[in-house]
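Reopening this ticket.

The earlier resolution said the output was attached, but the attachment link was broken on my side. Pasting everything inline this time so it's all in one place.
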Amino acid sequence: MTQVTERGTRLPGAPRAGVRRRSPAAAACVVGGAVAAGLGLGFLAVLVIVLWISSPYPDSGPGGALHLAAGLWLLAHGTELLRYDTLSGVPAPVGVTPLLLVALPVLLLRRAARLGGASDEEDEEVLPATAVFSAVLCGYLAVGALATVYAAGGPMPADPISAAWHVPLVAVPAAAGGVWGAKGRPLGPLPNWLPGGLRRGFVRPRYALALRAGAGGALVLLGGGALLVGASLAWHGAQVQTSFLSLTGVWSGRFAVLLLAVALLPNAMVWGAAYALGPGFALGGEVTATPLGFAGAPALPRFPLLEALPAAGPGTPLTWAAAGVPVVAGLAVGWFAVRRAREVSYGETALTAALGALVCGVVTAGLAAASAGPLGSRRLAEFGPVWWATGAAAFAWTLVLAVPVAVGVHAWRYRPAEGPVAVDADTPVDDGWHDSGVREIRWEAMRRVSGTLVPEIVAEPVAPPVPPEGAAPAVAAVPAVPARRAVTVVSGLDLGPVAPPVAPPVPTVAPPVPPVAGVRVLSRRKPPA
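Inline output:
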């Protein structure tokens, strides 16, 4: 009781739930990011160790293999490696990133961020999206810094400056995508610090359509590039096989070459798209391969994918046919840029197609920049497509084709419906039904069956003609006689069985039915036997 009455003594309060639960959740997110980085490192380390064990002539011990695995993990993020064992003694940078390797850290980090932003229990407090993003990214980048320091002692150390911005460049979008997926992919309002006009503009449907159209055009370009690479590999099949078999004679070395070729296939697709667009790609020594041909002797290493290059010299109609790839991409952008709304104007459709072409150009430029890089310090310092030239060519091709195609598809899709000409409601229709007498016959049959429920049809009196002015008056006025309508009697007309009249419950005397004026009903004669 004294603990309650005394002022100086306070009861031990329970710790707040938010403080107690938030710290373990944030720590779990940090650990999740570190585990995602460790899984990527472990996968590459196991692969390199297996190849090192199976190699009959290993150059270094297991430590060198682990250092090489750390360097490959950093190369998967776009970091440049340095190769010191060169003939000239000058360190040669290796900056061509196999794009298939980039999928490994992206998928692992995205999964870690999605698990950190989700909650399994109902009473568990979920961290805000910004806290999950920061915690997961912190754990991942910490492991990346340790891997950079560890790879420095290997045969191919990583450039610290390149690793300092390439690793976050890959990790930030992957973590943001995972958190966004964990929160249900919300499309809420943009931040308030953006200008009001920009926030209002981004909610318009044209931007979603432009993104879809641009992505469709980029996918068509990549598919066309893959088609060109596959056709060229099949065309130069003998050279590709000879190059693959001459690089090494052991199965472990050939397996490593095969894995490297598979990891570089996305790069080859981007290079094929750049080749079809026109700018082509650099092969070192100021030599560029384009559909119009290339001259010179490129200093190329022996590799199966490089054997698929076209022959040196001027272009041929076969290489010029690669221009069909950007044509199809422009048609795709124009098709996807048309909205399914009749009230959209042609100017809005053209603007959407132009924005889709811009998106396609930006995506193509980004892929070209990611697929290129140096393979040496002198003649191989420039290897791959030039990103700005490839993006500009993609934008120009799709813009020229997408805008007219989008306007044409809009005009064709919402053209006026073709059909019979509309008839005015006040214009009488001459269908032969009202003048043949069939209507009167049918109505009279229905009236006789139903008794007095259906009224009879009375012919309207015809007014006498009015004589024109100045005409002599008629000698004797003839009384107007209601004109009788001509009735066409069709022999053998069957009006169907006539049901017998139902007797009313109360006997009533029906008034005499006056003769039908203007209608002549003929009884059907029984045909002779």
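Reporter confirms the inline version is readable. DSSP finds 16 helices and seven strands in the chain. The longest strand covers residues 81-83.
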